[in-house]
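Standup notes
- DV: blocked on the single-chain target, sequence here:
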Amino acid sequence: MSSIAIIPARGGSKRIPRKNIRNFQGKPIIGYSIEAAMNSNVFDEIMVSTDDVEIADISKRFGAAIPFFRSPETSTDYTDTAEVLIEVLREYKKLGKNYETLCCIYPCAPFITGDILRESMEKLKSNGADSIVPVVRFSYPPQRCVAIRKGKMEMLYPENYNARSQDLEPLYHDAGQFYCITSKAIFLEEKLFCKNSLPFVLNNYDAQDIDTEDDWIAAEIKYQILNQKRSL
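- DV (later): unblocked, structure below
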């Protein structure tokens, strides 16, 4: 079953300028995603979908393919990731290449490993799923969350006021790192979280959102600590 890893990395990041190629612990952060895909040994092609020449050059140095650049239509702030993936698959089809499964790997995900990607792709192929979504358990039950409205605190689910945390159902959130999907499903549903999706549960230390400068600092600290533990 042919597989492709697609790393969407446009050049116009706003909250953290040039985020996709910013130095993270000694190398451009996109390099971690490319290397994880290579180390998984499950992809027939590893490509970066970008509209940016500098991102393309750096990606090539890490071993990724750039057979074509992303179109202006899929390079805006409002482009959905699924649109990018579909465009990539269609462009490859023009080149005579068809892939049955794909893995969308975000460029700012330094905690992804080849093992995680390999296990996720194996789960996709062996369980008849349309997609595999990495998830992380909420560290605190969201059933006891509060909102601040007009300066006052208000429980959204007051029926859980007296509930013990351990008695509430464990809930999870999308880790926002990668998605393993069948090509058939992405064309049919045009989204990453398909109807027949299975979870790939990550530990909290295997994931970190990187959307702000504070997130970036937290990710570097977490990465350093993990590396120290792994070297012991």
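- Follow-up: The chain has a mean pLDDT of 95.
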